[in-house]
Write a structure and sequence with these properties.
The complex is a heterodimer of chains A (about 280) and B (about 425). Chain A has about 280 residues and is of the alpha/beta class. Chain A has helices at about 10-30, 75-85, 115-120, 135-145, 150-165, 170, 185-195, 215-225, 240-245, 265-270, 275-280; strands at about 35-45, 50-60, 65-70, 95-100, 105, 120-125, 200-205, 230-235, 250-255, 255-265. In chain A, the strands form 2 sheets. Chain A has a 6-stranded mixed β-sheet, sandwiched between helices. The two termini of chain A are about 30 Å apart. Chain B is built from 18 helices and 3 strands. In chain B, helix 10 runs parallel beside helix 13 (about 280-300) and helix 15 packs antiparallel against helix 18. Chain B is extended and about 100 Å long. The interface of A and B includes residues 121, 140 and 191 of A.
Chain lengths: ~280, ~425
């Protein structure tokens, strides 16, 4: 895809440079027997006439936590929402390039958005439980996808999901109370439980802790550590400490391009790009 | 310098507090004026209309004499219709006042009771032919003039009665004998319109209104909600949808008589629906209510936070599932409130119903929505045109009935709103 804006050559350089640590990662992760589950290839996103993402290419490894960091408006959330096609609803949003999930192009005409979202769950910035009971919140996904065979099965799924989200002991006596009565941190863990109730392969988290206090944040981060045994997690975060704490790999976005991606320690201790270095050391953003 | 500043500050604070106080005083004044205007209006209607809920009746002993009736107990229903019931009813009155001999006086005497007496006797004959030949006791309404005179004597109100002096005397005798009493007017709620005020009831109009509103609801609610959902959730922003939106907003402001004309031209003349019926009236009112419901439903949908939609979509719900599982339950209370307000508006509409002929004089309670009927506001309009004193109180009473209807509907809106809000929690 030919680039015709001024920063094009600059971009190209970055992606070459960024590809070096990513090669290392692949080698390293090969020993961990992980493999690429989501691959983005030259993804461009346009909102009307403004381009929000420029040629983003990234490989996301299975059963790892990948953190996407960067200043506000850098396009990291936009990229995240491309992975489960949440941008589809925006009329003037146009996407070029390719994103694959398990080697399948998710923007291919044959792909059903509903079944894609069943495989790629999402947790949002603000906890957004449905205005229903705690039980119904978790049971909603299994119900619409016909996952549970009978009532007992459904109950088991709900209890399991709440257990995995570390919420069951707190809510087991009030499963049929409104989810809106929970605290912010509990609501967010409920949203995570809801997302994993349909057993997705990838879990997208869009600043899941930005509305939570430090204790609730801690809860959610612990939860992510446990969940990564079974799920691939991509988290967008404003907090560099959080990215450093929870992720194995980190990608740095700036002005709509993916500047650098690599092992988290490498990004934070030895960034290749100057902009990454400046951002991490707090010179801008 | 510093002191000056605080002095300024103090002055400013005081004037702010005064402004605040003045504003509140204006608000309370406004409420008092509005409240007293409402009280005056309601008081006026109530004081005029409450007497319509009572009716003066007379207990008559009627001798169902075969000779006077001209039929026997074995007569067919057709023959019963021909029976001379007027004669036996009049005779029962003559028996009460044997001193009345002159033809003219006799006629004055019979004018004290309502024509309804004869109708009641005829019904009796059709129902129980075996009673012919016996003496029956029947309570029948007195004529409107007598009714008004008696009610006025009870309240001490002075007015120029149409009763003659001798009629007043006879009536007074009957009152003293406890043969004429005043009782709750149940017929007002069960009977349809009549040319005689003492027989006219609101029942036909109430049933007609209920049918009309039900048809209006059944058409406008599903159509309105579907249109609102499409416009809010599915349509893309195009020239067409913007045109549709502008037209819906304009339709809400179109005078209702225009909808009546449309109904006359299209529903009656092209589709050939029966004239003067709740069916046609309901369709016309549905057209009128539709924009209200669409606008209310759309604004209710707009207030549903996008995060709920995103949550549903991220769980893999299809657009239809997101709409019906998450958006509509949250928007339902607003939609229902808007619908009931639209229906309440339709309840008060007269002009479109006049255009499609629901203004006709209908003397029977409609059985099905395709029977000719009238509606409450039209009934009020019809009665308000009549100069007779009997109809003046009926008009006010009908207004009270329509106000009760409105209050019940608004209470329903409040109850529904609270219910749906609780179930959301």
């Amino acid at each position: 895809m030919p680039n015709n804006n001024a920063s094009a050559s600059n971009n190209m350089n970055e992606s070459t440079r960024a590809s070096i640590p990513s090669l290392q990662t692949t080698r390293k992760s090969a020993t961990n027997s992980t493999q690429t589950i989501v691959r983005a290839d030259n993804v461009n996103v346009f909102y009307g006439n403004t381009q929000a993402l420029h040629d983003v290419s990234i490989d996301i490894q299975e059963q790892q936590i990948t953190a996407l960091i960067g200043p506000s408006g850098c396009g990291k959330s936009t990229f995240l929402r491309c992975i489960n096609r949440m941008n589809d609803v925006i009329d003037e949003c146009k996407i070029t390039g390719q994103i694959t999930l398990n080697k399948e192009d998710i923007y291919a005409p044959s792909i059903d958005v509903v079944s894609l979202r069943r495989k790629v769950g999402m947790v949002f910035q603000k906890p957004n439980p449905f205005p229903k009971s705690i039980f119904d919140n978790i049971a909603y996904g299994p119900r619409i996808h016909g996952i549970a065979e009978d009532k007992d099965d459904l109950e088991e799924i709900v209890v399991n999901s709440l257990n995995k989200a570390g919420l069951f002991s707190e809510v087991k006596d009030r499963l049929h109370n409104s989810a809106l009565g929970l605290s912010g941190g509990q609501q967010q863990r409920l949203c995570i439980a809801r997302a994993i109730a349909i057993n997705p392969e990838v879990l997208l988290m869009d600043e899941p802790c930005s509305a939570l206090d430090p204790i609730a944040t801690n809860h959610v981060e612990d939860l992510m550590w446990e969940l990564k045994e079974n799920y691939t997690i991509i988290i967008v975060t404003h907090s560099m400490q959080q990215a450093a704490r929870v992720s194995q790999r980190t990608g740095f976005f700036h002005m709509g391009s993916l500047v650098e991606v690599g092992q988290t320690e490498q990004i934070f201790q030895n960034p290749v790009d100057k902009r990454t270095h400046d951002y991490i050391t707090g010179r801008f953003g | 310098m510093h002191n000056e500043d605080t002095l300024n500050q103090k002055n400013r604070n005081r004037s702010r507090i005064l402004a605040d106080f003045r504003f509140r005083a204006y608000g309370i004044l406004g409420l008092v004026i509005a409240g007293s205007a409402l009280l005056f209006l309601l008081g006026n209607i109530f004081s005029t209309g409450y007497s319509a809920f009572q009716q003066t009746v007379i207990t008559l002993e009627i001798n169902l004499d075969e000779d006077r009736l001209g039929v026997t107990s074995t007569a067919s229903p057709e023959e019963m219709q021909e029976a001379n019931v007027a004669k036996v009813v009049k005779q029962s009155l003559y028996d009460l006042f044997p001193e009345v001999k002159k033809r003219k006086e006799k006629r004055d005497l019979t004018k004290l009771i309502s024509l309804g007496a004869e109708l009641d006797v005829r019904d009796m004959l059709l129902l129980k032919p075996e009673s012919i030949g016996s003496i029956i006791t029947l309570t029948v309404p007195v004529s409107s003039d007598a009714d008004q005179y008696y009610k006025a004597t009870l309240t001490g109100e002075q007015f120029k009665s149409r009763l003659k002096e001798n009629q007043k005397q006879w009536l007074q005798t009957l009152i003293d004998n406890k043969q004429v009493i005043i009782k709750f007017n149940i017929d007002f709620f069960t009977q349809a319109d009549s040319r005689y005020p003492e027989l006219a009831g609101i029942g036909g109009a109430v049933v007609g209104t209920i049918y009309t509103l039900l048809i209006c609801l059944m058409i406008s609610f599903p159509l309105g909600v579907a249109a609102a959902i499409y416009l809010e959730e599915f349509s893309r922003d195009s020239f067409m949808t913007r045109m549709v939106e502008a037209n819906i907003n304009n339709l809400a402001a179109v005078p209702s008589v225009i909808f009546g004309l449309l109904g006359l031209a299209v529903i009656l003349n092209i589709f050939g629906m029966p004239r003067s019926t709740p069916l046609a009236g309901g369709i016309v009112l549905a057209l009128m209510t539709l924009p209200t419901i669409i606008i209310a439903c759309r604004s209710a949908i707009k207030t549903v936070p996008p995060s709920i939609r995103e949550a549903g979509m991220a769980m893999g719900a299809s657009p239809i599932q997101v709409t019906f599982h998450h958006v509509m339950p949250a928007a339902m209370s607003g939609t229902l409130t808007g619908t009931i307000i639209g229906l309440a508006q339709a309840l008060g509409e007269t002009a479109p119903l006049l255009m499609i002929g629901m203004v006709a004089f209908i003397a029977s309670v409609p059985g099905v929505p395709t029977d000719p009927a009238t509606a409450l506001p039209v009934q009020i309009y019809l009665w308000a045109e009549s100069a007779e004193r009997g109809f003046v109180e009926k008009t006010a009473a009908a207004i009270m009935v329509i106000i009760v209807f409105l209050i019940v509907m608004n209470l329903l809106a409040v109850v529904i709103r609270n219910r749906t809000r609780i179930s959301n929690k």
